[in-house]
């Protein structure tokens, strides 16, 4: 009997899940809330609610050899580091080659994923969906793969920035940034030195009077091709102490006047609004999953979270391996360890992470 698998999300991880389900003889049905595949890499001029959003110039920071799916190389004529539009082209090629699109229900939101009353025996799930016309449907699935990523809910810690309510310039999360032209000859402050913060600061520096890049702890910058430092109108600053009108005061006592723009490149939070907290709980932007995939204490291993990691490199190969493993578990070809063993593994990883990353 074919086992039906719900795949939530049609981004890169969702595509890998569909493909792996088909490889294992499973029947995937993917629910994608937008009108297209691609997830994070699908550029839109205006950010959509509850969806990832990128700026126009985004180029992936891992090479094509390290980001492609294992059974579908990226075309040789594509550049090593690809613009987001080429990444979308690659995803479409992948989906077309393996005929994945016919398994995707576009413009369909997942409202609820709930264990059936006989879950301890069947491992099945009730899945409620809603299409763009407001039509709701209920479905029964033997397993569920959740691939909604972790770049949908912007983190705006305004409570950590005294006086932000008095700031008379404009501020927004990096999720809302698209192009620099609007800020030509202005002064800008970018908060955060992650991937987006660094990118946006450099791009703004090409058109603004001055950019100030604020970071709590600094960062090590690894040069890609040269030890020669590029000249930019970007000045490093420590954490912000307070805002007042058009001015920004930093922890070192320096004050910048006449600031027009503040971009909060302060990351994201993630959640599973369609899942009960007793299935997966999220606290302080963390959740406990065995090998970052399986909730350890479920009675049946029929729920997998795919792509909820922040790797040193591209997510695509990791999601593919996670999806391969999960589908083998769903079929019963691979068994998970005991609950005790999985919980010990989770706790061990938590302790290692706490030692590796100093939080303050």
Blueprint (SSEs and pairs):
Elements: E1 4-8, H1 12-23, E2 27-31, H2 64-67, H3 84-97, E3 104-105, E4 108-115, H4 119-122, E5 125-131, E6 136-141, E7 143-146, E8 153-154, E9 170-173, E10 187-191, H5 195-205, E11 210-214, E12 234-237, E13 240-244, E14 247-250, E15 255-256, E16 261-264, E17 268-269, E18 303-305, H6 316-331, H7 339-356
Parallel strand pairs: 1-2, 1-7, 2-3, 7-18, 9-16, 10-11, 10-16, 11-12
Antiparallel strand pairs: 4-5, 5-6, 8-17, 13-14, 14-15
Membrane topology: Single-pass membrane protein
Enzyme class: oxidoreductase
Subcellular location: Endoplasmic reticulum membrane
How would you describe this protein?
- It contains 7 helices and 18 strands.
- It is globular, with a radius of gyration of 22 Å.
- The longest helix has 18 residues.
- It has 2 domains: 236 residues, FAD/NAD(P)-binding domain (3-Layer(bba) Sandwich), CATH 3.50.50; 109 residues, FAD/NAD(P)-binding domain (3-Layer(bba) Sandwich), CATH 3.50.50.60.
- The model has no long low-confidence stretch (mean pLDDT 93).
- By secondary structure, it is an alpha/beta fold.
- Helix 5 links the parallel strand 10 and strand 11.
- Keywords: Endoplasmic reticulum, FAD, Flavoprotein, Membrane, Monooxygenase, NADP, Oxidoreductase, Transmembrane, Transmembrane helix.
- Its EC number is 1.-.-.-.
- GO terms for molecular function: flavin adenine dinucleotide binding; hypotaurine monooxygenase activity; N,N-dimethylaniline monooxygenase activity; NADP binding; trimethylamine monooxygenase activity.
- Belongs to the FMO family.
- It is a single-pass membrane protein.
């Amino acid at each position: 009997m074919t086992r039906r698998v719900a795949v939530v999300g049609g981004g890169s991880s969702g595509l890998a899940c569909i493909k792996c389900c088909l490889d294992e003889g499973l029947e995937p049905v993917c629910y994608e809330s937008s009108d297209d595949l691609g997830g994070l890499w699908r550029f839109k001029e205006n950010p959509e609610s509850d969806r990832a959003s990128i700026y126009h110039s985004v180029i992936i920071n891992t090479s094509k050899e390290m980001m492609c799916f294992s059974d579908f190389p990226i075309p040789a004529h594509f550049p090593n580091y690809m613009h987001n539009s080429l990444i979308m082209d690659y995803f479409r090629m992948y989906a077309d080659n393996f005929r994945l699109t016919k398994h995707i229900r576009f413009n369909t939101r997942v409202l609820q994923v709930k264990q059936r009353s006989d879950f301890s025996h069947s491992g099945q799930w009730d899945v409620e969906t809603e299409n763009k016309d407001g039509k709701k449907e209920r479905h029964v699935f033997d397993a569920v793969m959740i691939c909604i990523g972790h770049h949908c809910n912007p983190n705006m810690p305004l409570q950590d920035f005294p006086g932000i309510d008095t700031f008379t310039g404009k501020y927004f999360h990096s999720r809302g940034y698209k192009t620099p032209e609007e800020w030509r000859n202005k002064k800008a402050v970018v908060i955060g030195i992650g991937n987006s913060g660094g990118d946006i600061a450099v791009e703004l520096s090409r058109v603004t009077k001055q950019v100030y890049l604020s970071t709590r702890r600094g960062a090590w910058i690894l040069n890609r091709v040269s030890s020669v430092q590029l000249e930019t109108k970007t000045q490093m600053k420590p954490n912000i102490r307070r805002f007042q009108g058009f001015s920004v005061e930093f922890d070192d006592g320096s004050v910048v006047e006449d600031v027009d723009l503040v971009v909060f490149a302060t990351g994201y939070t993630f959640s599973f609004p369609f899942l009960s907290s007793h299935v997966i709980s999220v606290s302080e932007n963390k959740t406990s999953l065995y090998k970052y995939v399986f909730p350890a204490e479920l009675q049946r291993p029929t729920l997998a979270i795919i792509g909820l990691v922040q790797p040193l490199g591209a997510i695509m190969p990791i999601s593919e391996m996670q999806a391969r493993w999960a589908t083998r578990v769903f079929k019963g070809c691979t068994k998970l360890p005991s609950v005790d063993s999985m919980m010990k593994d989770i706790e061990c990883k938590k302790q290692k992470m706490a030692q590796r990353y100093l939080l303050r």
